[in-house]
Amino acid sequence: QVQLVESGGGLVQAGGSLRLSCAASGRTFSRYTMGWFRQAPGKEREFVAAISWSVGITYYADSGKGRFTISRDNAKNTVYLQMNSLKPEDTAVYYCAARNSVHSDSPGGYSYWGQGTQVTVSS
User: Fold this and answer.
1) Of 10, 42, 43, 94, which sits most exposed with the smallest number of CB within 10 A?
2) pLDDT band at residue 17, thresholds of 50, 70 and 90?
3) How does pLDDT run across 75-86, given as a tens digit for each residue?
4) pLDDT digits 0-9 by tens, 105-118
5) Rounded to an integer, what distance in angstroms lies between the CA atom of residue 81 and that of residue 70?
6) For residue 1, what pLDDT band results from cuts at 50, 70 and 90?
């Protein structure tokens, strides 16, 4: 099992920035993918960004392209999501997730999940 803990959420004005962190502990894998998903009230959980851990290949949903950047710190077993130019529609609970395979943009493809961190963007 892998334990994931998100942090860094908060309240920010439109146009502002936040950096989310996800610290992984417990069992890890040599080749796996870590990703960020988000879920707004009344909506389905949706893919935001992902990174292949060993090689650093990144993937982004159209919603965050040009504004969001996913990165990793191998020594800390931590993945980050830098969010710039935030919009009110970015308001959601953001979840960190992991899978021991190649990237998938489907929430069902991920085996491990954190408890989420709230991001609220005001207009």
Assistant:
1) 42
2) very high
3) 898 999 999 999
4) 899 999 999 999 99
5) 5
6) confident
CA distances, 110 to each of 38, 53, 54, 88, 100 (Å): 14, 14, 17, 27, 8
Quick count: other Cβ atoms within 10 Å of Cβ 68?
Answer: 21
Contact 25, 2 (CB under 8 A): yes
Separation between Cα atoms, residue 60 and residue 123, nearest integer Å: 24
Structure tokens at 119: 């991001």
Residue 103: how many other CB atoms lie within 10 Å: 18
**Angle at alpha carbon of residue 86, lines to 111 and 41, rounded to 5°:** 55
